[in-house]
Amino acid sequence: MQRVAVFDFDGTIIHGDSVVDMLKKGRQQGKVPLSLMLKAACAGALYHMKLISAIASKRCAHEFLSRLTGEERTAFLKDFAQSLYDRARPEALNQFKAHQDAGEHVILCSASGECYMQYVAPLLNADALLCTPCDEKGLPFGENCRGQEKVRRVNAYLEEKGMKNVLLTAGYGDTAGDAPILSKCQTPVLVRPKRKLKKLMPQASVVHWQDIKKR
After folding, report:
1. Domain limits at 192?
2. How large is the angle between the packed helices 54-62 and 34-48, nearest 10 degrees?
3. What is the Cα–Cα distance from 157 to 55, expressed in whole angstroms?
4. This model's pTM is above 0.90
5. d(CA 207, CA 72)
6. CA dist 13 to 21, 108, 115, Å?
7. Tens of pLDDT along 65-87?
């Protein structure tokens, strides 16, 4: 039987929201004008009010990437990915490696954008990355990898790889958007969970992995 573990990223392996961090880093480097910062903030508010989709909100946040040259964009995203990894929670990294050392297939499954997660995944030595797709300019499109979409993506990946006799040994997440995939795992682990996730999965294990301060 193939044993598989699934990890969320934002709020689980790192503290906070990587999209917000990306905007802040872009702003610090002079790549995000104030007008785009305000536009992204408004889009985020509209998303939380359920007036626009997650993809529409993320496209606003990623818009500055489309204004960079290909070389500038790649350099920025690689540097940003390294900064995310540098503040990964030590317990998260240890748990990630523990599953790998036990011979398990480890999937990084995140709603974050592929444009930078493609550089984060190798740093973690993940066996697979399932996340929100982005086009060549870094703009998200398609389905946001959250909620039931995480289940669909994991199942599609396992089928594509011909992995039929599979046990999802453990899943790690922090929000209600992780609940569907966590419920498919033998051992769901809530990492410093939001209140709604705790309410949805009251019997799940809870851990309080320590944060690494932003650098």
Report:
1. 2-207
2. 170
3. 22
4. yes
5. 38
6. 14, 10, 18
7. 999 999 999 999 999 999 999 99
> Left (φ > 0), alpha (ψ -120 to 50) or beta: where does 125 sit?
left
Residue with tokens 């493609």: 118
Largest alpha-carbon pair distance within the chain? 53
| pLDDT tens profile 85-128 | 999 999 999 999 999 999 999 999 999 999 999 999 999 999 99
Q: Running DSSP on this structure, what letter comes out for residue 13?
A: T
What phi and psi, each to the nearest 5 degrees, are found at residue 185?
A: -95, 145
Residues 133 and 55 sit within 8 Å (Cβ to Cβ): no
* Number of domains into which the chain is organized: 1
Which one, of 98, 112, 94, 99, lies nearest residue 174 by Cα?
112
Per-residue pLDDT of 7-30, as tens digits, reads 999 999 999 999 999 999 999 999
97 inside domain? yes
Domain presence at residue 215: no
Residue 212 within any structural domain of the chain: no
CB 105 within 8 A of CB 127: yes
CATH number of the domain to which 140 belongs: 3.40.50.1000
Nearest to 135 by CA among 210, 62, 82: 62
Side-chain half-sphere CA neighbours of 95 within 13 A: 23
